[in-house]
Amino acid sequence: MKAPLAPATAAPAADELAVLPVCHEAIRILQQEATFLLIDKPAGLLSVPGRNPQNRDSVAVRLQQAFAGASIVHRLDFDTSGVMVIPLTKAALSSISKAFQQRVVEKHYTAVVAGLLQQDSGEINLPIASDAENRPKYKICQQTGKPSLTHYHVLARDEKAQTTRVLLKPVTGRSHQLRLHLWAIGHPILGCSFYHNDWSAEAADRLLLHATELKFPHPISGETLRGWAPPAF
């Protein structure tokens, strides 16, 4: 296994036009093959360079310094950590892109949310639309929103802290879907500055959302592969 890549010496990461703190944490290589990488992205790192010229530091820029053919086929939000698959060839990019488009890729996330979820499992089926008046936020909108579905399963409840650890499986892949869906049912993810209640945003020093598992067809053999990395929280 190749050693983790050191942080790039590029300018600080940023979201949209606002410059955000530099991410000093390295990308961890979980698996390396000739056609793709499986990585564990740290929180506080963009998947691709942002609009601000200082937004260069990202998964794409760091990996392309070591792997010339590295491409981004899916993204995790700046604040979200976890498993990503990185194609290294054009053929792998095409194959994995089709797998995402056909929704045969399975994604599971771990999150810690405010409050105690009553049901052990369930689904959140609420349409999501861009919030033009509060960019870059999104909103639940029955009129203009796109269908969005999230399944959840309770892993543990902490009655003292009044929080719940949940496993999330998004069926659709809307921007901010998991954060917005959990907030909409009254259980915002801890550490989220966009969608929060009176105390949830300050309850953690980072967004407690991590892409724990990714299943997808091998770009050559078609065999189902599993990338897995436990959350650091």
TrEMBL record:
Gene Ontology BP annotations: enzyme-directed rRNA pseudouridine synthesis; tRNA processing
Record keywords: Isomerase, tRNA processing
GO MF annotation list: catalytic activity, acting on RNA; pseudouridine synthase activity; RNA binding
Domain Pseudouridine synthase RsuA/RluA-like: 36-182
Gene3D superfamilies: Pseudouridine synthase
Transmembrane segments: none
Stored InterPro entries: PsdUridine_synth_cat_dom_sf (IPR020103), PsdUridine_synth_RsuA/RluA (IPR006145), RluA_PseudoU_synthase (IPR050188)
Superkingdom of this protein's organism: Bacteria
Official protein name in the record: RNA pseudouridine synthase
Organism of provenance: Cellvibrio polysaccharolyticus
Taxonomic path: Bacteria, Pseudomonadati, Pseudomonadota, Gammaproteobacteria, Cellvibrionales
